[in-house]
Write a structure and sequence with these properties.
Layout lengths: L2 H7 L6 H4 L16 H8 L2 H9 L17
Helix pairs in contact: 1-3, 3-4
Length: about 70
């Protein structure tokens, strides 16, 4: 996992703005191509999703199966 993926999957939304300064918030994981938004959707982490949206993360990046986080 990318560090941002671990943060959003563990509901640590308060540190997202800090980590976003040194990490790519649109990074995809190697396993299935998920972004931070995909992990937010999977784990129901709406607070992290709001933080990512405020930082202009891309919610329309597709995973390896061609699905966005909105699927």
């Amino acid at each position: 996992y990318h560090v941002m993926h671990m943060i959003v999957s563990r509901n640590s939304f308060k540190v997202i703005p800090i980590i976003a300064k040194i990490c790519n918030i649109n990074a995809r994981d190697d396993r299935n191509g998920w972004t931070c938004f995909h992990f937010c959707a999977r784990y129901g982490n709406y607070k992290a999703a709001l933080e990512l949206a405020a930082l202009s993360a891309d919610a329309f990046i597709l995973d390896k199966q061609g699905r966005s986080c909105l699927y």
